[in-house]
Amino acid sequence: MEEQKEALLGKTLNELKNLAKALGMPAFTGGQIAKWLYGQHVGDIDDMTDISKANRETLKKHCTIGCMAPSNCMKSKDGTIKYLFPTGGGKFVETVYIPDNERATLCVSSQVGCKMNCQFCQTGKQGFEGNLTVRDILNQIYSLPEREHLTNIVFMGQGEPMDNLDHVLRATEILTASYAYAWSPKRITVSSVGLKNKLKRFLDESLCHVAISLHAPLPELRSQLMPAENGMPIKDIVELLRHYDFSHQRRLSFEYIVFDGVNDTMMHAKEIVRLLKGLECRINLIRFHKIPNVPLKGADDRKMEHLRDYLTQNGVFTTIRASRGQDIFAACGLLSTAKKNRKCPSSDHGR
Question: Do 159 and 132 touch, CB atoms closer than 8 A?
Answer without folding.
Answer: yes
